[in-house]
Amino acid sequence: MPYIANTDADRTEMLERIGVASTEALFADIPPEFRFPRIEFPAPLSEPELMAEMKRLAGKNAGSGDYAWFLGAGAYNHFIPAAVSALASRGEFSTAYTPYQPEASQGTLQAIYEYQSMVAELTGMDAVNASHYDGATALAEAILMALRSGDENRLEVMLPVSLNPEYRATIDTYLAPTKARVLEWTGNPLEAAGYATEATACFVLQWPDFFGDLWQPSDSLAETLHGKGALFIVHADPIMLGIMKAPGSFGADIVTAEGQSLGNPVNFGGPYLGIMGTKGALVRRMPGRIVGEARDAQGRRGFALTLVAREQHIRREKAVSNICSNQGLAMLRACIYLALMGKGGLSSVASLCWNRAHYAAREIGRIPGYEILNRGEFFKEFTVRCPISAEEISSALFDEEIVPGYPVSRCDPERPNDLIVCVTELDSKPRIDWLAAALKEAGNGYVD
Amino acid sequence: MAMSTEPLLSEMGAPGRLGASLPELDVPETPVPEGLLRTALRLPEITELEAVRHFTRLSRLNYSIDTNFYPLGSCTMKYNPKVNEDAANLAGFTDCHPLIPEDLAQGSIELMFGLQEMLKAVSGFDAVSLQPAAGAHGELTGVYMIRAWHESRKDAKRKRMLIPDSAHGTNPASVAMAGFEAVTIPSSADGGVDLAALKAACDDTVAGLMITNPSTLGLFERNILEVVKIVHDSGGLVYGDGANMNALVGAFRPADAGIDVMHFNLHKTFSTPHGGGGPGAGAVGASSRLASFLPGPIAARKGVNRGSGRGSRETSGDYGFEIPENSIGRVKSFYGNFGILVRAYAYMRQLGAVGLRRVSENAVINANYLRVLLRDTYHEPYDRPCMHEFVAEGDVAAGVRTVDVAKRLIDLGFHPPTIYFPLIVHEALMIEPTESESKETLDAFAAALIRIADEAKSDPQLLHDAPHDTPVGRLDEVAAARKPVLCYHCD
Amino acid sequence: MKIDQNAKYLKSHEWTRKDGDAFVCGISDHAQKALGDIVYVDLPAPGKHYKKGSAFGVIESVKAASDLYMPMSGTIVSSNTDLADHTDIVNKDCYGAGWFIRFTADDPKEWDTLLSPLEYMKVSEKE
What we know:
The complex is a heterotrimer of chains A (448), B (491) and C (127). By secondary structure, chain B is an alpha/beta fold. Helix content of chain B is 34%, strand content 10%. Chain B contains 14 helices and twelve strands. Chain B is globular, with a radius of gyration of 25 Å. The two termini of chain B are 32 Å apart. Chain C has one domain (8-107): CATH 2.40.50.100. Chain C is built from three helices and nine strands. By secondary structure, chain C is of the alpha+beta class. Chain C starts with 7 loop residues before the first strand and ends with a helix. Chain C is 17% helix and 35% strand.
């Protein structure tokens, strides 16, 4: 039997030492009628048979290797240096657990501390936790954190209409048992923030929003909210922060982000990591593991889990959250990615995304029948109104092995012709020209 | 383990160094408006080699399953097979975008469907959702479902969730997030649920009971059928915390006992790596009553050939996603921690039903063997056959505490067990060896603990000063919490 | 275990003492010992009103955390700002410099209903 060391001889000796006649005797507490049921299961596979089966399944998917992807909408194809996987797959990292024993876990702890430090720099926060499940749950828990931080009659949560619909659905699930009320805002964020009142717990800005619109920040938004005692939550694209202002610099109290773009493949939706950071005294109300610097008796620097009294194993039902882990390996990949990219690399990636996306938008905007809907700024995603339905365009382009974007009709049936197109540093000029040519051809004949 | 500490990234490198190679700009430049641009970015400037050495050295400061016995109780630190990693890293899986049309992701959806079916088979549940990202996330999902079920029956007064005092802290924390009140139920003298206390607590305000079985004491709840009946009779539902499923896989199906909803820790029972804290996967199974409340989307096999002829790749299109009728909604983006699901699927396919039964059998033999080797030295508060883990007390000599024993174990090359949990055991040492370990390893670990018990009497200072052979000694957590330093650029 | 004979107590280990027209509140020596090294105290802003028995703050050590309960209904006059940077004062001088809040009581007679030093000593010895 694979992965089990005990031989029949070992078992006999061990059972004898235990003082029972059989293995079954150790299961005597289980009601006899339900003990060792018959289980319908596929036949076991040897390792080569297993890999053949896994390759069969993987081969049924369309991987990004043969397709040109312009699909983002919450999961992004960015370049991942080879060293990320080589280092993160080391067993010393991957087969350790939560660093409860700091003396035997300094590798994991220091990596978390370095991740926290680099993400704090990117986001402009004072403290960042060791990560949440994903961007959606990080944002949902940030909202719960804001609700807990104000007094109990601050129950209004202001969410943008243009929020990623999966985030919105996740937030709705998390808020269902609470007394919170969601108010949706649309239009200019600065004007929308003017509607905050003494009952507002928090105002959420997705930066850029689901359709790509990127608000040009001004300090007065945060001032308006803070004047009402409300918190300002910014959910940002972490790659973009390589060149753009840190949300902390324009007054964000909590920053969340989907961290997948930092060194993690799209992987059919997970595992990703949720980034969360905050400022000042709010750190005591932030959920999630946090690592801090500590010294031993000889004055040597080390790292340990800290501010643990926030957490469920101590505070139980009064804990700031039930979370008791982080997305360790996904976070480690983000940490290694940021270390490798560094100052020069991350800003290059962000600049490439910006410039290539703007080139793509100009090229697509020039095609008769196509219109770019973003009126202001955008970063790597923008929304195109197509001459025919976006689903039809997509189907036509699959034949060319191009996935041209995300048809908005999947979340809003009233916008059948709109397509969210994502362009990253992996999309070269020829590839963008290929997309534009394919779009032109697919739209041809449908234009007035 | 490496002995010396490693500098921080911020203490390495030199201005201008690059660790990655990126394409040149091949399109006309578009200026970024001034109002958007950041002024500074203090990130590392190191070469790839510097990064490789840094993270390789860091890795060597860890204990891990691949390097050490790691008997952390309730964490099921079993061996994580390497073939699972190869499978999960196949480009067809990793490069598949979650929002592509289902026709282009048939392999991933088929895998999810197959995993759901296998989890149903080992648990007896009617349906499984793979969306929750971790055990605690699965728990929260289950409690949300119980809440939604009572609400669907317009039974708004059911706000109390009963939780045994041996439970993991995530249980009451999940209950609070779901807007319920956590009510503690004491344990009986033999470590089970106190039936009299349970009966007294059950009335028409009870939403349900959360039960970990085997409990965190490593004991199977002998009265499980009666416990479930008492709660059901009062109109409540029973949540099963599947943290300790490694004792039961192939031996007992929780749904047979009437459990209504339960999470599986795929990263424990089904061998996916713990990753220094995650990612895990907390799939949730539900009985017929609660199946329609599961979070979605859930993988489904459709009866018709769904091939649409789109794209150059013909797919049979047999698999798709569905959202259960009364679904509580999403608990995260997309479908779950897919990469972890691949590993769990691979493990279950390799072992098959018989292999999984051998897992629980050997996990239980190993735990009992170790328990018997140690019981004359370390007091065991519940001296009866255990399941996959057991609890002992670490205060083996006057002035010596469990933490001292744990730190000394590090010197001897073993990761310490879980300590000071469960809370109801004084100076607890919670030991879970798993089925992966050989008899020789168990013998060596027992010998180390017995040696430490001798040292506790002859040279207690040796224990108080432990660990000795680590890159850092015991850290001053009080000073760290009083003046937190949480990042290297922060003031 | 030290007891301040001029204070009255709650079972949850808060003490309260008359201080001019107002009252001062902290935690007992028994409680600070049980918690261990205090690393953080979260105290309310002046002007906030709390009912008797409701939580007005939180105290944390590395291994434990506990809510702080209002001994009498009243309005916060001031919180001990020295504790923000020097939580060790609570361990060193819990009845003096380690006080938490000063408050005005809605009904000063409520003080008479609290546990006497002797009654509190009996309660805490049982723990």
